Amino acid sequence: MRELLKLLIPYWKRVLAGFIILLIVDLGQLVIPIFIKNAVDRLYLGKFSEVPIWALYILIVSLVFSFLRFFWRIFFIGTSRTLEKDIRTDLYEHLLKLHPHYFQSLKTGDVMALFTNDLQAINMALGMGLVAISDFLIYTSFSIVAMLVISPKLTLMVIIPLPALGIIMFFLGRKIHHQFLKIQDYFGYITEWIRDILSGIRVIKTYDTKGKLYDRYSEISKEYLNMNILMGALDGSFNASIFLFAYLSMAILLLVGGTMTTTGSVSIGDYVAFGSYIGMMIWPMMALGWFANLVQRGSASYRRIKEFLDTKPEIGKGGKVSIRKFDSIVVKNLSFSGILRNVNFEVYNGEFIGITGPTGSGKSVFLSILARFYSSFEGKILINDYDWKEVSTESIRRTIFLVQQEPFVFSLSIRENLRLANPDASEEDMLWALRSAGLEEDIENFPKGLDTIVGERGYSLSGGQRQRLLLAMAFLSKSPLILLDESLSALDSQTERQVISNLRNLGKTIVLVSHRITSLYECDRIYVFNRGRIVEVGNFNELLNKEGIFYTLYSAQKEGILIV
User: Fold this and answer.
1) pLDDT tens-place string over residues 541-554
2) Does 43 fall in a domain?
3) Which of 269, 264, 265, 257 is nearest to 37 (CA)?
4) Does residue 525 belong to any structural domain of this protein?
C-alpha cells in the first residue's frame, strides 16, 4: 500500500486541494444532524415557527456542498486518470526499450493485462479509493467527536463492534489481494489465447473442424468465471460484515439510547441527531471496506507493473559516439551463443553485399546483431572504425534499416505504414518508393489508394504485397545502410530483377540475405554461411568456380532458373 500511495507524491497539490474541498463538504454534511436536532427540539418545545428556518439552513447547506462535490471529483478522479496516463506512457516507453528476444518468453496477453485491467485497478485505488478513505477518516472522526459531545457513554457503547470489523477486514483483505493476483494472471492468459485465435483464424477454420479449440476455450472461460465467483464471494463477505456491524451499532443505539431518552439522560433531539450520525457512519464503514478492497487490488496490480518496469533492458543507450554517415562495418572473429563462430565480415559505403547459406546457418541472427538487437557477443565489430560499444544505439538504429524475414505490417493505412520509415515523405516520394518496390500498380487498383487500411497485420495484402510494402519502406528510409533478410523470397523472378536493379541504383549500401542464389548475381561480394561460420567469400562467378557450398546450392536450384 505504501508503494502505491507514493505514486501520488508528484500530484500532491491536486490531492491536497481535493482533500480540503472534500473536508469542507463532509463537514457540511455533519452539520446537518445538528440542524435536525435543533429543529426536533423546537418541535418538542412547541416553537413551530422556528422549524422552517432550520429546514432552509439544511437546504442551503445541501445545495452549496452538492456544488462543491463536483470539484473534489475533478481533483481526485482527474488526478487518478492523469496518473494512469503517465504509468501507461512509462509502460509503453519501457516496452520499446526491452530487447527483442525478451518477448520470445513473454506472453502478449500478460502485457495487455498490464495496460488494461492492472492500470484500471490502480486508477480505482488512487481515485475512488482515496475518496473512500478520506470520507471514512472525516466522517468517522467528526461523527465520533460529535457523538462524544452529546453522550460519551452512549458513544462508547455504539462503537463496540468496530474493533471486530477491523480484524475481519485484515484477514479478508489478504485473501482478496492473493485472489486478485490470480485473476489478473489468468486474464493475461485468456487475452493471449484470444490473440492467438485471431492471429491464426485462417488455420483454425481450415483444421479445427471438430471445434476442439472452442471446447478448450469454454474450459478456460469457466475457470476464469470460477475465480471471479470466488472473488465475488470474498467481496460479498466483506460488505456483509460491514453492514452487520453497522446495524449492530444501530441496534445498540435503539436499546441503550432509547432507555437513556426515557430517563432524560439525553433529549429527543440529541437521540435523533445521534441516530443521524450512526446512519452517516454506515457509508464510512462501507467506504473503509471499499477502500481496503480497491487498495488490495491496486497493490496487486502495481506489483505486477513494477515487476515489468524493473526488467532491465539488455540493449542500453550504448556509447557516446554519434554516427552521421556510414563508411564501413568490419566484423572480426564474432561468436554468439553457439550460433555464430569466428565470423569475419566487412561492408563499405556504396557496396551491394550478398549473404547466403543453408537454413539455420545463422544469417538472420547475424543481421540482428548488426542492427543491435543483441549486445552480448565475443569478438569485435567496428562501425566507421569506432568500436561497436562506443557508438550510441540511437545512431546505429538511425544508420541501419533492417527489413526482417517475416514481413510484418501494422494495421494502418499504406500511407501510415510508409511514414513509419520516413515521417517527412511526400506523396510523390511514397509513390516513387512503391514503384521502386514493384507495388505501385497494386496500390492504384486499391479502392482508396494510399489510404487503404491493410487490416490486422496486413492480412488483406498477399505475402508478396506485404514484402514489397516493406521494401518500399526501405527505399523511403533515410538510413544509408539497408539490411534485407530474405526480403525478395515472395517476388516473382521478373519483379525480383527489377527491384534488385533499383536497389543497386539507390546509392545506398545494401546487405541482402537470400537463399535464392540468383538474387545475388549482381552482388559485389557474397558471404556463404554454414553452421554459423563463413566458409566462402567472393563474387558470383568466383564462388561458382570454387565448386564449394555455393556451387552446390546453385546446382540444386539451377533447374528452371535463368541467370541474367
Assistant:
1) 999 999 889 998 88
2) no
3) 269
4) yes
Whole-number average pLDDT of the chain: 81
Residue 92 identity? Y
> Containing domain of residue 393, as a range?
350-377+388-557
Q: Examine the domain organization and report whether 299 and 404 are in the same domain.
A: no
CB atoms closer than 10 angstroms to residue 173: 18
- Same domain (yes/no): 108, 194: yes
Confidence of residue 527 (pLDDT cuts 50, 70, 90): very high
Please list the residues that pair with 483 across neighbouring strands: 402, 511
Q: What is the CATH number of the domain that holds 476?
A: 3.40.50.300
- CA end-to-end distance (rounded Å), the chain: 71
- Asked whether residue 491 is assigned to any structural domain, the reply reads yes
Which residue blocks in 200-344 are alpha helix, DSSP H?
201-207, 212-252, 258-262, 268-309
Domain count, the chain: 2
364 in the same domain as 305: no
Alpha carbons 284 and 138: distance in angstroms, whole number:
9
The CA distance from 289 to 287, in Å, is 5
Is residue 369 domain-shared with residue 491, that is, in the same domain?
yes
pLDDT tens digit string along 144-157? 787 787 778 777 77
CA distance 386 to 491: 37
> Phi, psi (5° rounding) for residue 331?
-110, 130
Whether the pLDDT of residue 256 is over 60: the answer is yes
In the block, cell 469457466 appears at: 222
What is the residue-wise DSSP string for 111-154?
HHHIIIIIHHHHHHHHTHHHHHHHHHHHHHHHHHHHHHHH-HHH
What is the distance between the alpha carbons of residues 103 and 111, in angstroms, rounded to a whole number? 10
- The rounded distance, in Å, linking the Cα atoms of 103 and 313 is 12
pLDDT of residue 564: 38
Same domain, 185 and 135: yes
CATH code, 139? 1.20.1560.10
Of 162-171, 389-398, 402-411, give the lowest mean pLDDT range: 162-171
Identify the bridge partners of residue 335 per DSSP, sorted by sequence position: 378
| Grid cell for residue 291 | 477502500
What is each CA distance from 346 to 167, 283, 343, 438, in whole angstroms? 71, 74, 10, 30
Cβ atoms of 540 and 526 within 8 Å: the answer is: yes
The answer to whether position 448 is within a domain reads: yes
Last residue of a domain, one of 309, 330, 361: 309
**DSSP conformation class of 253:** I
Give the residue from 293, 301, 289, 287 showing the smallest Cα distance to 7: 301
Domain closes at, from 291, 309, 327: 309
337-346's contacts with Cβ under 8 Å and 24+ in sequence apart are 337/376, 337/377, 338/532, 339/365, 339/532, 340/365, 340/366, 340/369, 340/377, 340/532, 340/533, 341/531, 341/532, 341/533, 342/379, 342/533, 343/379, 343/532, 343/533, 343/534, 344/534, 345/527, 345/534
CA dihedral 287, 293, 296, 301 (to 10 degrees): -110
Q: Residue 407 in contact with residue 467, Cβ under 8 Å?
A: yes
